[in-house]
Amino acid sequence: MKLKRLFLLIVLSIPMGLLAQAKFGYLNYSEVLKCMPQYAEAESQLKVLQGKYDAEIQRSENEFTRKYAEFLQEQKDFPQNILVKRHKELQELMEKSIAFKSEIRNTLQTARNKMLEPLNQDLNDAIARVALQYNLEYVIDMGTGAYLFVNAKAGMDITDAVKSALGIQVPVNNAIPSTLLNPAIDNSKEK
Q1: What distance lies between CA 3 and its chain's CA centroid?
Q2: CB-based contact 132:180 (threshold 8 Å)
Q3: 55-92, pLDDT tens digit by residue?
Q4: In the prediction, which pLDDT does 21 show?
Q5: Residue 83: partners with Cβ closer than 8 Å, 6 or more residues away
Q6: Which among 16, 33, 27 is positioned nearest to 136, based on CA atoms?
Q7: Which of 57, 119, 139, 181 falls between 20 and 30 A from 24, CA-CA?
Q8: pLDDT confidence tier of residue 191, bands split at 50, 70 and 90
């Protein structure tokens, strides 16, 4: 939140003449990332890992349910000190299960970040190449919702150009405009 405020403060302090000259591009980062062939492979590996953890969680829950059912059946026959001991065992088992689930969430997030790190690096490199190729001042990720309004006439959508730079097939109905393929074409006469 502080970073957004700082960015807004910086943008508001730039003279309007300089902003009018800035050329920017925009894309949906997540959309491009999900189009990368390696993304599907990483997601598949994560699902396999998730399945293993889910199986362990289920085994742990089954063990807890079995022990709890035994406790309920036998509790009337236990002396007070055994009853307290078994209750503590069940409580510890439940706490361990909760801690394990939290650990799994962290482990899966770390694994996801590690698997996607090379993809993010490739995508960031492609964005930088495209931005430099088209002499863009900056590129905005429209998928994050960080910007509520962008005048598309003042910038250019480079999503398909970045996909193309990564070797991802762009559907014909999303064909890259000739101005993106050849930045030498000047559309300034249209203004």
Answers
A1: 19
A2: no
A3: 999 999 999 999 999 989 988 888 999 989 999 999 99
A4: 66
A5: 75
A6: 27
A7: 119
A8: very low
**pLDDT tens-place string over residues 21-38:** 668 888 999 999 999 999
The dihedrals phi and psi of 156, each to the nearest 5 degrees, come to -140, 140
Q: How many CB atoms lie within 10 A of CB 126?
A: 21
Please give the structure tokens belonging to residue 177: 């405009």
Supply angle C-alpha 188, 153, 4, rounded to 5.
125
pLDDT interval class at 174 (50, 70, 90): low
Who contacts 147 (Cβ-Cβ below 8 Å, separation ≥6)?
140
Report, in angstroms and rounded to the nearest whole number, the Rg of the chain calculated over CA atoms: 27
Asked whether residue 17 carries a pLDDT value surpassing 60, the answer given is no
DSSP letter at 191 equals -
Mean pLDDT of 152-157: 74
The structural domains of the chain, with segments of one domain joined by +, span 20-181
For 20-181, CATH number out of 3.40.50.620, 3.30.910.20, 3.30.40.10, 3.40.50.10490 equals 3.30.910.20
